[in-house]
Every structure is written in structure tokens, then in C-alpha cells.
């Protein structure tokens, strides 16, 4: 969530930060009351609060609406300003995958269902391109887990738990289908995809570039290149 003192990624600059209270000074030096969290609307079924905070890195304001049910359980958060989060795609990521990811992030404030559908399709493409070719996303995730670092594997496996795949089999049988999502599911999918981008595309490319530079130095010294594993 984008509340003051909460930690998350700034939707403006993409930096991970602990959000701070917006400036309490209005135009021309006039003061105003800090309303970082304020009741927005209430009905018999739900209560909506408006949250405003500031990114300590880019110092831009963030405004969101947080919705709770009548028992006080958090339901969802909708970003109001900016309209969507800034999630940068590394240049090493194939364009067709990057396009799906950017679209999933862009529609998140408008439709969590649509965002989750796009991110699931994106995830399936990533896993397929990296050798996990089963048609069922649930099976692809299971096959990929042993080959991933523990932290990333746990986060990837959580996609099935947060998304409640057992109760919603169409999520992994027809990944592009628009179906109900659990709270935080759409955001979590995007977070895990960013980790997979780094593991499958960014790190191998950087390692390859380092090997090339080392081979060039070895060549200059009259020595053979590194052996490929």
C-alpha cells in the first residue's frame, strides 16, 4: 500500500522506498492540515479511505484509495495519481514479453482481473521460453521451482497460493482468462515477474559480457579463452 511509513515501489520512479508524509506547506507558503489518510466514503458494505504520501527519492505525490469491508478487512487499493505504476523492463527481456508486462502494469489501477490475466500469460511465456513447456501453468511452475534460487522459487510458488489455483483451475489452464483475483494477486504476479526477468535474462547477459571481456584480456596475453560450461 502507498500509505505513509509503508515500504513499496514508487509508482513514479520505480524506486523501493519508505513513503513519507507529503509536504504540509501549500501554495505561496500557506499551510494546510496534513491529510495523509482520510475517510473518503462509507456505505453499509464498505469504507473507502484516501491515502496521500510522497516518495523520498523523486519527491512526487502519490494518491490512492483503500477499500475495506464492513468488518474492516482490506479489500483493494486503487492508484489515483499517477494513473499507473512505473515498472521498467530491462532491455535484455524479449520485446513480446516486455510488452505484456508493461500492459499488465498499466491496466492494474483500472482492472486487477485484466492485469492478472496478462501477467499470468507473461509468466507462462517466460517459463516456456526457458524450457518448461507444459501447457498447464501450475505444472510449469512446479517444474521450474527446483532450478531457481530458494527466494525466487518461494515467491514463484506463492503465485499459486495467493491466486488460489486449487479453487480456480482456469487460472492455470487458460492463463489469459479474465477471472476473479485475490487481494494483492495482480501486484504479486508483477513483482515475481521482475525477479524472473533478472534471473533468466539480465544476469545471464551480464555474465556473458563479463566472459567476453575476460576472453579479450586472455587473448591479448596469448592465452586460450575460458572453457564454456
Q: Can you characterise this structure?
A:
The chain has 229 residues and is an alpha+beta fold. The protein folds into 2 domains: 7-24 and 33-81; 95-209, no CATH class. Helices cover 40% and strands 17% of the residues. The protein contains 6 helices and 6 strands; from the N terminus they run E-E-E-E-E-E-H-H-H-H-H-H. The N and C termini lie far apart (44 Å). The model has no long low-confidence stretch (mean pLDDT 85).
Please specify the SSE layout and strand pairing.
Blueprint: E1 7-9, E2 16-18, E3 37-42, E4 46-54, E5 61-69, E6 74-81, H1 95-107, H2 112-129, H3 137-144, H4 150-162, H5 170-173, H6 185-220
Helix pairs in contact: 1-2, 2-3, 2-6, 3-4, 4-6
What gross morphology would you assign?
globular
List the helices and strands in order: EEEEEEHHHHHH
Which structural class best describes the helix and strand composition? alpha+beta
Number of strands: 6
Q: How many discrete domains? A: 2
Mean pLDDT: 85
Uncertain stretches = none
Please give the share of residues in helix: 40-55%
The side-by-side strand order for the widest beta sheet comes to 3-4-5-6
- Major sheet characteristics: 4 strands, antiparallel
Content of β-strand = 15-25%
- Rounded to the nearest angstrom, the radius of gyration is 22 Å
Amino acid at each position: 500500500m502507498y500509505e505513509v511509513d509503508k515500504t513499496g515501489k514508487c509508482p513514479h520512479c520505480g524506486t523501493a522506498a519508505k513513503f513519507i508524509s507529503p509536504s504540509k506547506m501549500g501554495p505561496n507558503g500557506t499551510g494546510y492540515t496534513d491529510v495523509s489518510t482520510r475517510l473518503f466514503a462509507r456505505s453499509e458494505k464498505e469504507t473507502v479511505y484516501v491515502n496521500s504520501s510522497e516518495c523520498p527519492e523523486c519527491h512526487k505525490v502519490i494518491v490512492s484509495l483503500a477499500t475495506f469491508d464492513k468488518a474492516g478487512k482490506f479489500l483493494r487499493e486503487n492508484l489515483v495519481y499517477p494513473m499507473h505504476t512505473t515498472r521498467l523492463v530491462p532491455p535484455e527481456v524479449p520485446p513480446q514479453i516486455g510488452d505484456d508486462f508493461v500492459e499488465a502494469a498499466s491496466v492494474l489501477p483500472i482492472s486487477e482481473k485484466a492485469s492478472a490475466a496478462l501477467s499470468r500469460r507473461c509468466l507462462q511465456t517466460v517459463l516456456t521460453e526457458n524450457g518448461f513447456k507444459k501447457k498447464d501453468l501450475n505444472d510449469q511452475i512446479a517444474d521450474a521451482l527446483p532450478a531457481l534460487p530458494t527466494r525466487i522459487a518461494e515467491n514463484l510458488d506463492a503465485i499459486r497460493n495467493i491466486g488460489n489455483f486449487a479453487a480456480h483451475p482456469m487460472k492455470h489452464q487458460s492463463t489469459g482468462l479474465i477471472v476473479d483475483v485475490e487481494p494483492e494477486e495482480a501486484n504479486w504476479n508483477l513483482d515475481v515477474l521482475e525477479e524472473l526477468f533478472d534471473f533468466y535474462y539480465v544476469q545471464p547477459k551480464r555474465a556473458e559480457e563479463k566472459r567476453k571481456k575476460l576472453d579479450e584480456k586472455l587473448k591479448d596475453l596469448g592465452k586460450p579463452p575460458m572453457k564454456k560450461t
